[in-house]
Amino acid sequence: MEKEMLYPVINACRTEQKLDGMWQFKFDALGVGGHEHWPAGLPQAQEIPVPASFNDFFTDKDSREYTGDFWYARHFFVPAAAQGRFVGLRFDAVTHRAAIYVNGQLIRRHEGGFLPFVADVTAAVHYGADNLVVVQGNNELSREALPAGDTVTLKNGKKMARPFFDFYNYSGINRSVHLLTLPQQRITDYTVNTTLTGDAAQVAYTVATTVPGTVTVTLTDAAGTVVAQGEGAEGTLTVAQPHLWQVRAAYLYTLTIQLQAAGQLVDEYQDSIGLRTIAIRGHQILVNGQPVYLKGFGRHEDSPFAGRGFDQNVEAKDVALMAWTGANSFRTAHYPYAEEVYQMADRAGFLVIDEVPAVGFKMAAASFLGGLDQSFFGGDWIKPLYTKHLDQITDMIRRDKNHPAVLAWSLLNEPDTCDDRSVPYFKQLFADTAALDPQRRPRTFTLSEDDTITTSKDLQFPDFYLLNRYPGWYHYAGYALSDGEAALRAELDQWASSGIDKPIVFSEFGADTEAGLHKLPSVMWSEEYQVEVLQMFSRVFDSYPFIRGEQVWNFADFQTVEGTMRVNGNKKGIFTRDRQPKAAAFYYRQRWLALPLNFKND
Ligand code: CKX
Prior knowledge:
With 602 residues, this protein is an alpha+beta fold. The chain is 17% helix and 32% strand. It contains eight helices and 32 strands. The chain has an eight-stranded parallel beta barrel. Strand 27, helix 4 (382-400) and strand 28 form a beta-alpha-beta unit. Ligand CKX is lined by residues 165-166, 334, 366, 414, 448, 468, 470, 474, 508, 553, 570, 572. Residues 165-166, 334, 366, 414, 448, 468, 470, 474, 508, 553, 570, 572 line the site of ligand CKX. This is Beta-glucuronidase. Keywords: Glycosidase, Hydrolase. One of its GO terms (biological process) is carbohydrate metabolic process.
């Protein structure tokens, strides 16, 4: 578990400098870096951009597909004025594991390719001088790690990633690196939790610090007026007539936390927070006590050139396109996204289902990936995997807990819940994560098509259900689509007759579509067929009152492993990989702009 995950800010007490740019880079297929002293500098390295996945910058296949250890390095300057302060290097994400060396000294290791960590380099850096940071990365997949997969060795000795999941194993320093200088006596974390009573909002807060001191908390509205103040490391701020954070009508306050020691201001931290509540009641998903219907997407962090590297240009475009379609929500399939994504969602008023990279927990998963006929939850990797899984949920919640946009936590994607051996795993997981979120947001996981009301052994655990369903594509495809509709209705009738007392959100459905392929009458892969499949789903969704959301798979086409089922990636995007609309984008714009937020409750 990471202790300090606060997003970097600059103010009178804190500095940060982004170390993004061109870094030195080198593969280490033979694993010689350690004994050849690479931590002290990379010999004959090449340049590569950070943040970005390294893969798509290469023109040869061995490099693009590279699996194993890889190294990054760059120099950075630490000002003399930083002496006596905490100096840290914050890595927003290195995929999937990293060892951090500064000036040749091992500082720390980290596992988990989608969450941040800070290396405390206070004692390792030279002040008022040049320093060298070297990162030893590794992108091997295993059943003991998230996301799950295997690493195999080809006859030519090269390693190859065999993911149990359907997205490309983009690797490297995928998000920004920051040089932080912070006060030794400082704020390390805070939480907020809003309740609404009558005409007021109560914001319960806690602040964690490295030393005991006097904590003051000030809440300022968007006009800069102070609306509430509190003293002490925990307390409640009362805001009369609050501007609530609403779906697609966000309002943010600024929370300023100050820490004083011996009568002196020693640290300050600011963040934008939204005042809102979230609850599930019967079939309803409630935001501020009002039912909401989710419209939107399962997404990926994926774009040309930078792969899974965070690119604010891509994110800004995606936010604009989502708004254009009339969407109000998305799922961070299948891993926590860059922190800037949640900040933009906070500002734009999108609801986010935040997912941990527990994907591929099913050996027969996606047979197109070469499913293996074994039990996933019966495997001897389950114990070490559980530890990492819980660790990453803990860090995801710790990192994202204060974002008003975050609606729910998705703890797994398409695990094998038909296996009795999954039950103890789920029981433990839901028990161990119950108190992690001070806001107690709903927790859930997606159910694949195998996992139904009659087959799944784990339906007692989620607060609401996420269903991934593909009639019209993986079965009942093409001219048999009408049978797909009948089968989907038959399944939903079973859920209905079970007396289901929780909402269902469709978190995946769709059809691969080659942009520009038109056919009348439709055939599979044509834009016309994609629209027909999505229209079929809309008809079904509109027939069942307990369906409270639709997040189509996927927002945009994305890169996957190569294979007979994939023509240069997964093409279920409503937009192409370069973010141009397919016919389905216009279909959703028409549907979603017309659907009221409280659809099925008006
Ligand atoms: N669900 C049969 C997980 C996603 C995939 C999606 C697909 C599958 C479907 C499971 O990560 O991309 O195949 O399009």
